[in-house]
Task: structure prediction
Amino acid sequence: MDLIHSTYRKRETYQITLYSSLLYECALGIAAVTNIPLIDTLELPLKTTRKSVSKSLQNQLNEVETHNSWKALLQLLHQDSFSSLDAFLSYVNSLPSDQLRLICLPYLGQAHEEDRQQASKGNQSAIKRWQRETADHPFYSDYLAFITSEDTNKLKKHLTKVMTLWYEEMIRPQEESMETILHNDLREKQKMLNKLDPESFVKWVTGGIDYRPEPSVFEVVLIPHYTYRPWNLEADLEGKKIYYYPVSNQSIEGNDAYTPSQFLVQRYKALGDKNRLKLLKYIAEGEKTLQELTDLVGLGKTTVHHHLKMLKSARLLENNRQTYKIQGHTLNMLPHELQQFLTGEESE
Result:
């Protein structure tokens, strides 16, 4: 039976908020340098950076690596627009224990909010339910155990110390240039904000993420970063989706028509290897698991995984934790992106 539409309502979408801060750059730098599986894919040589910092900072980074406490820093930063590091540290130290734990716990959706509230108060039943709900996440279950069991005075001391040390050793020496890069990128994005619909804008800023409107998400917050390039990071807050996205090459080097976007360089760099091209061809024939691809190309699993990370970071592949598949939209856009860079005009 045909449906007769008696009402009309335009499809709703989300609003976009752009925001930048050296405090986010600081927290994301801490996250990047302690993400050992991804560290070789980063554009900045953070593996050597980890060894060159002070012993005190190394100790704090070791704790971050163990507990993924960088997540707590980002959760706390989203509570306000902090004007300085001191303002942020003062806020953290002023929080009551229950509120600190609640803020540090990720938002899983309204259906799980009561468990989140109760888990922050130490309710063991709620903690176990929350851990079961996040069992397939790489670190949330262990992170919850850490946040809910750690003495909050020790937690505050750790968070404020690692943030302070990283800022002083890694951000302060390049504070002015880093601020300029983030400001340039924000200005570049703001120029395009009203020229694209929200969904197209998110895809353009992130280099291909296709984020469709979903219930209870009314705002997408886009935050530029430099240290974690070329990766996008994603987070959820109540009513919001957060993307921390890599700043463009133009934002780093200035508005130069001869400077290609980092996505263009990244994609052709990812394609410039016979083993990665071989992997792409196998995947183009049908979705494949890591083990299947390892068997097909005859390389070690670690090597194959590294190649897949490069293809995924270039948005040429996507995976659902089990299998990898081609990002058709990105491949189709490659000749257009190259033509745009070379001539300033879109190809037909």
